[in-house]
Design goal:
Strand order of the largest sheet: 2-1-5-6-7-4-3
Mean pLDDT: 94
Largest sheet: 7 strands, antiparallel
Low-confidence stretches: none
Strand content: 35-45%
Structural class: alpha+beta
Length: 153
Amino acid sequence: MFTDDVRRAIDQSVLCWLATVDGEGQPNVSPKEMFYAVGDREIHIAEIASPVSRRNIQGNHKVCVSFVDVFRQKGYKIHGDARMVCEDASDFDALAAPLQKMAGPEFKVRGVVVVEAIRATPIVAPSYRLYPDRTEAEQIRNAFRTYGVRAVE
């Protein structure tokens, strides 16, 4: 399921976006900072301060997690089934430990969202299709110019 390219997108992302759905079908998107891929089908995500995501997952296990490099303007969305592992679960400590290490002492991991991937779909900015001869390096330069940032040397 997770190709090298998908794994690279996950590993190089500083944020992912977790989309859930509430009991009335209303979508909710929440940024997440602590996450990592496990094997080739799972993503573990720290739940630190997201009661809406927690409640939604407990009511509807269908989720989508997106990883996008804003400069390359490429990434992946992972559709899957999620389960919420809470602090009273027997496997919580083992699942939370790597995420708590990422979070450091400032943030407490209150739960772990375990996403089992069903499919991974590329996310690609329209400019790649509109300008098929444009290289990724050119795309990055254009993004830097658009966003007013410079590469760190």
